[in-house]
Amino acid sequence: MAAPTEFILLAGFLGSGKTSLLVDWLALPEAADTAVIVNEAGAIDVDGAILADAGGVPMAMLANGCVCCSLTSDLVFTIRALVEERERSGRPPFRRIVLECSGLSRPGPILRSLMPLAPLGLAIRVVATCDASQAAERARHFEEVAAQLAAAGTIVLTKLDLCEAGPAEALAAGFNPLAGRVVEADRAARARAAFAAAPPPLPEQPEPPPAILAHPRIAVLRVRFRDGASWEDRLDFLEDLAASCGEKLLRVKGFIRPPGPGVPWLVQAVGTLFSPPVPMPGAFAVPEGLVVITRDLDAAALGSAMPEAPVWFASDRPVALNCQAVPAA
């Protein structure tokens, strides 16, 4: 059975190197069978022109506007058109479709807009670029940076020729300890790691985290279920969590366990959009629990907002929960 087409949402703040990373990727032989969708907020499609200059890449341009706000229906139509045209040509499906977002886009609303595409069975993941030379300053002033980094499954540090990687890597870990980090000065190797590398296997033990650079508005919380919590309690909690946090919920990832000896189920969310839980036999030895990343909402405040929840909330240090991408909801 052929692997599902990957849909890679390439996020990252203005000037963080998204287009350069994508150009480097398209120059590699591994980029064969990649289609590209470009969304730029400006009236002149500069990024699209740069990528078109790479040559030979199936490409679609979205009209002027931010794809997470006014262009979601256009995005669904464009993806369907790419897939259907490929089928009509008699060629195998694309191996991947890359959406390069505007630097002001937030991944959550974009992922939510893809729900009508569930029948296509796309394997969705988010890659975010992080300008190592300006990461701390950007994160301090722009909420979009927090949303982009927290949503990512892979964070790619860029501009490494301008500064040391350590502080930016620590910042990225502080925002999202669940993401893999690509710290690679060689441009081709960086692009290959961002787009071509398979997600790493689930580790038996969490890897030691790097030094963490705390952010005053970002909280990384560990959620554990109380003894006696039922399967229904667990599912109800996930719904209540989204309702209680709203836009302050940036990312959720972890495992819940059904009663009895059943296998753990992987739970993932970007913003308030939850993917359907997926059974993960390979994670049988991993303890049950969730890592929740929030903005302007710490453990005490979340506990007060959900006093009846069958869980414990606590501040957390980064943990490794690397899992395969799952098909679109």
UniProtKB/TrEMBL annotation:
Keyword terms, alphabetized: Chaperone, Hydrolase, Nucleotide-binding
SUPFAM superfamilies linked: Hypothetical protein YjiA, C-terminal domain, P-loop containing nucleoside triphosphate hydrolases
Residue ranges of domain CobW/HypB/UreG nucleotide-binding in the record: 8-166
Catalytic activity: GTP + H2O = GDP + phosphate + H(+)
Entry keyword annotation includes Hydrolase: yes
Gene3D superfamilies in UniProt: CobW-like, C-terminal domain, P-loop containing nucleotide triphosphate hydrolases
Regions crossing the membrane: none
Domain CobW C-terminal, first and last residues per copy: 223-305
Role according to the record: Zinc chaperone that directly transfers zinc cofactor to target proteins, thereby activating them. Zinc is transferred from the CXCC motif in the GTPase domain to the zinc binding site in target proteins in a process requiring GTP hydrolysis.
PANTHER family named among the record's database cross-references: COBW DOMAIN-CONTAINING PROTEIN, COBW-RELATED
The family this protein is said to belong to: Belongs to the SIMIBI class G3E GTPase family. ZNG1 subfamily.
Protein name: GTP-binding protein
Source species: Teichococcus vastitatis
